[in-house]
Please model this.
Amino acid sequence: MSTPWIAVAQILVLVVALAAVHVPLGGYMARVFTSARHLRVERAGYRALRVDPDADQRWSTYLMSVLGFSMVSVLFLYGLERLQNHLPLSIGAPAMDPAGAWNTAVSFVTNTDWQWYSGETAAGHLLQMAGFAVQNFLSAAVGIAVVVALIRGLARSGADGRVGNFWSDLVRTVVRILLPLSVVVAVVLIAMGVIQNLSAHTELTTLAGGTQHVLGGPVASQEAIKEIGTNGGGFFNANSAHPFENPTPLSNLLEIVLLLAIPFSLPRTFGIMVGDRRQGWAIAGVMGTLWAGAVGLLTWAELAGPGVVPAAAGAAMEGKETRFGTAASALFAASTTSTSTGAVNSMHDSLTAAGGGVAIFNMQLGEISPGGTGSGLYGMLVLVIVAVFIAGLMVGRTPEYLGKKIGRREITLVALYVLATPAIVLTGTAVAIATHAGQAGILNPGSHGLSEVLYAFTSAANNNGSAFAGLTVSTPFYNTLLGLAMLLGRFVPMALVLALAGRFATQRTVPPSAGTLPTHRPLFAGLLIAVALVVVGLTYIPVLALGPIAEALS
Amino acid sequence: MTTSDVPSSSIPARGGAPRTLGSSVIAFTRQTWAGLRVLLALTVLLGIAYPLAVTGVGQLVFPWQANGSLLTADGSHVASPAGNAHGPAIGSALIGQSFSGSTWFHPRPSAAGTGYDTLASGGSNLGPTNPTLLATVQERRAQVAAEDGVDPSTVPPDAVTASASGLDPDISPAYAREQVARVAAARGLPVARVAALVEQHVRGRTLGVLGEPRVDVLALNLALTTMAP
Model:
């Protein structure tokens, strides 16, 4: 349907929009996290809540704040889900079962937004507003807070492991960044056709005399933060393919810009905060290169439409909307899997084998291209340290990054980080494939069936949330196991990152010497890309070969 | 000030100062309680005040869009399913509907419930090598070609594939043009008039590059009903 020229033009429009956003947003976020002043409303809030926003926390205290806050968030959301039928605005939605409620609570608190349920019938308006949308803000803010702590660790010298104050970082991210952006975007989305009301679903008689329900709900307010916070949990089952979530090609472009905006701007924030903007450019460049590669491959796959079904239909239009076509669907799919968003404007299960493979590979990179809000940058900084370490070994010098030595303790933390997520993905996939309960969920036959299971655990452990939705996951088996994968995939890496932040904050910054490897030059950027590809390649090629690669070659 | 971390000269200057288990538990409990207070306050702000404020602005400034872009049978805009003096709402300008029989322009196949069921949005989720989907596509191609009286090889892709939402309001201009002769014959209208109506309803790419050219099926069929034979 789409022509290559149109595909390229849409990508260019997107790149221009992102370039325009990058500088002001990145700079603004740096000011937010370095300002010594609290807003009046923030100060009043801290006083009322008896929280000290100026205590400079050690990394371990910062971590306890993250974990304690996330734990009460899971419990609160679980409670809302279990009790929603007794609460106002439930529009007839029943209480979630325990396994489903556990899965969904973890899903939204970990910024994954994996959904086993259909929003239009399983979630009332209050649960969507006061449960899901709230965690869309807070999980995004937690990710940003953690990366800000890591940046402070790198920027400070001899700071006794102190990395800032979680409560202040959390509140500032919400009040000064996410909320103002969301208000503006939500109103723009309404103007484009996204609904925003508190009505129940009402039946009407269609033009041809059939019946259909008019859907109600506070959708625009949730849609805005769903993209801005790289969450991706749809108000409706069809997510951003639903005309009430994404009504036009223009709203589609806006949503892609939004889900990439903060992840691509944070490298600038980083560059400013460590006092060397070139470091931020290098990282944004690496993220952009990996993203562009994925967009190119996925677009090529969907436009060419290899595979028996696309060939029989004339184009890969199964699971795609007419208003988006193949090009805008491929662009969305590549961007949502690059960013840990997981919103979809096409059904990924029906992507071509190569296109679906790129989507899986994107997530397996560890969500670093540019990744989720905060989590993308800390994932990339971990790989930077791997690259610095490898380069240090090659030239026989003690590796250092931004004046911080990468010693045994640091590289141990980094190694654990790199291993944690693949261990969860591969163990989970193996367990599901080896058990009847796991096999029972598979929809498509052959290697595509394995891809469905691999996609599910890849998506959960990397906190993406998109799915090969043919897999039936509304079972206690998948809800329990995928919930565990999301939880470990979020907080194990976070704990390691904060420990690393503490190590760096304790060290004194060493001035660069003649032997210091410059980490802002194209040579290092190339090495970083190679490290990212080799690490994920070595880890996942065997299972990719059995799934999408086998299907693409069949 | 429950969350402060009191600096102490007795703690060695290294990251992750050692704690006893007891002090760790106390610190974690303090942080968790603070977390609960912050969560409740932010839930009121983000979960109640924010969506209600946006709802207020939406209902005030864009009441038609905020309530689902509803249309009556004569095409006028209404903000409630109950409609207005022109009659009740017959659907949303953004959501596809089922149309069958030779007098209507047909939408794409839909995997939402039994077709265009807004309570069950979604796609088929069948993969690119799935034999069931392959058979379905071939079946649809033969059926659509027979209905519209065209060569099966000319049937466009959107006519034989289910959309992502199952609620796709649009079809390609090619599929709309293919149906002109059938609809005109069934309604006893001149082919040229129906063809002109289709061309009026073709929407191009936004800004020349975004999305794909398309025809809104409900709008087209609405216009058809107001056309005198």
